[in-house]
Amino acid sequence: MGDGAEKSILQDPARLLQRGSELLAERGRAMVVALVDRARAASPGDPDIESACRILETHGVPRFHARMLEDAQRNRAYRKAIEKLAPGRRVLDIGTGSGLLAMMAARAGAASVVACEQDPRLAKTARDIIAANGLANRITVIDRPSFQLDRARDLAGGVDCVVSEIFSDNLLSEGVLNVLAHARSELCSEDAIFIPEAASIEVALACHPDIDPPLTGVEGFDLSPFARHFPPVQTIRCDNPRLALRSAPATAFHFRWTAADDPPPSAASTTELASTGGEISAIVQWIELRLMDGVTYANPPGAERGISWLNRLTPIERRETMAGDMVTLHNWYCDEHVVHRES
Predict the structure, then answer these.
(1) Which of 197, 221, 238 is the last residue of a domain?
(2) Which of 208, 214, 232, 225 is nearest to 280 (CA)?
(3) Cα–Cα–Cα angle for 259, 265, 266, nearest 5°?
(4) Which residue of 18, 23, 193, 282 has the smallest Cβ count within 10 Å?
(5) Do residue 130 and residue 24 come from a single domain?
(6) What are phi and psi of 259, to 5 degrees?
(7) What is the CATH number of the domain that holds 289?
(8) What is the pLDDT of residues 281-297, one digit of tens each?
């Protein structure tokens, strides 16, 4: 691209946005970072150019990053575990995002800290944040996913502590099983520890008045077959007062990473739940992380406001139950997917 053509793009918000969107579609996120930097330098203070840059910087970045960073319970749990376990260790922070956990590790006295982030836009911001906090000489940020790291080239022979917060509302849908299994086999020493060291998927019977009804007629037409394209699971905040538990919780699956073997990539289980009585309409699911022995973080229904994770509701037949009525759940997961259904 000639200098004149590039100058025209950098000073025209519509063309800048078009070119940046093309790069994002082509997975050229690193090129978008450079494009945004050049546009700001070419048109300092231009509000339309700034708006276009912000669109390119935010496109496809999940909003949950903000909720996580505002989650004081999450941050406190990670800090406690990192301060106890990271000192003197070679730490890898997978999916660093803002760089927060990497900075906790450096501040705690880790021997070295490498933070990887697959989105170059976030990696650049993490570097800026780390430098602003005086830790640029203690933390190396690499803008690649952990799958693309090399033990010798990037990690000076490997690490003995892996920190990650690549979990989701169903625990698994950010690919955590594959990511941590790869880290253990390709990036870690034999005695490496993981933070969190374990996690579980919890379930219970519940009632919620606003479970979405089945799709039926619209303007006189039967559209019920279109419901096959809607996910069966709904999500709500864990402090939602309209969700009522109708059983004690039970563990559907338990995963342990500071262990000799990786969790299996798929598994099934059966859970027996005893109703406490009253109407039931859903299976509610939440997760719990065990950062280390005695330090946990979870989002059970009824948790206090500020927890970043959501509860997941799987609708079941709405009906009245008596105390002691048993409901059998079939649970299974495969890779990033988790399913609960009434047997």
Answers:
(1) 197
(2) 208
(3) 120
(4) 18
(5) no
(6) -160, 175
(7) 2.70.160.11
(8) 999 999 999 999 999 99
DSSP state of 314: E
- Alpha-carbon distance 31 to 37, whole Å? 10
Q: 25 and 75: one domain?
A: no
AA identity, residue 309: W
* DSSP, residue by residue, 199-211: EEEEEEEEE-TTP
Say if CB 191 and CB 160 are below 8 A apart.
yes
The residue type at 19: R
CB 247 within 8 A of CB 300: no
Say if residue 193 is in the same domain as residue 208.
no
Task: Compute the C-alpha angle 178/91/114, nearest 5°.
Answer: 85
Query: Residue 149 belongs to what domain range?
Result: 64-197
- 154-186 pLDDT, tens digit per residue, is 999 999 999 999 999 999 999 999 999 999 999
Q: Are residues 112 and 165 in the same domain?
A: yes
Entry pTM? 0.90
Specify whether 203 is located in the same domain as 337.
Answer: yes
- The residue from 169, 197, 225 where one domain ends is 197
Is the sign of the CA dihedral 113, 117, 120, 122 positive or negative?
Answer: negative
Residue 231 and residue 308 share a domain: yes
- Number of compact structural domains in the chain: 3
Is residue 342 within 8 Å of 281, Cβ to Cβ? no
CB count, 10 Å around CB of 21? 15
Categorise residue 311: left if φ over 0, alpha if ψ from -120 to 50, beta otherwise: beta
